[in-house]
Amino acid sequence: xxxxxxxxxxxRFPSIEVLTIGAGGGSLAWIDxxxxxxxxxxxxxxxxxxxxxxxxxxxxxxxxxNVVLGRLGTSLxxxxxxxxxxxxxxxxxxxxxxxxxxxxxxxxxxxxxxxNANMSDAIRLIxxxxxxxxxxxxxxxxxxxxxxxxxxxxxxxxxxxxxxxPSPGVAAALGC
Length: 176
Fold this sequence. Notes:
The protein is of the alpha+beta class. The chain contains five helices and eight strands. It has helices at about 60-70, 85-100, 105-130, 145-155, 170-175; strands at about 5, 10, 25-30, 35-45, 75, 80, 140, 160-165. β7, α4 and β8 form a beta-alpha-beta unit. This is Hydantoinase/oxoprolinase. One of its GO terms (biological process) is glutathione metabolic process. Keywords: Plasmid.
């Protein structure tokens, strides 16, 4: 056990090492030359951002998939940022759905499934390589969409408890 830092801020309780997994809302979904779906590590960032953003890009992201699936609302920042489900759907259709022969919702679910698999695999690899069994720990959901993915990850990893802190997006802003 260590007392790690998150960015430059100390975490004041014993815990295992905190490592980040690049699977944020801006992670781009893409298809390789062999026709396999991937998620990240490339990111749309905040500029241009996900396709659903007012000035968003043309490439689909995890956020776009969550918007299409109705897992996210249609606005952020107390309504100051309106998200377009149609723009998200268009990006998913063009880049993922049509090439893979999937409808919009199936393509969006595939994006979420690949993102979840990437996160589960990373948690499994990091934990087991250090001699820890993920089933013996609590999964702490960090990031703006951490709560959207945490239950699926916990089920996949047989982690019995998920903790969603009051403002999980703040941890992502700090680099945790």
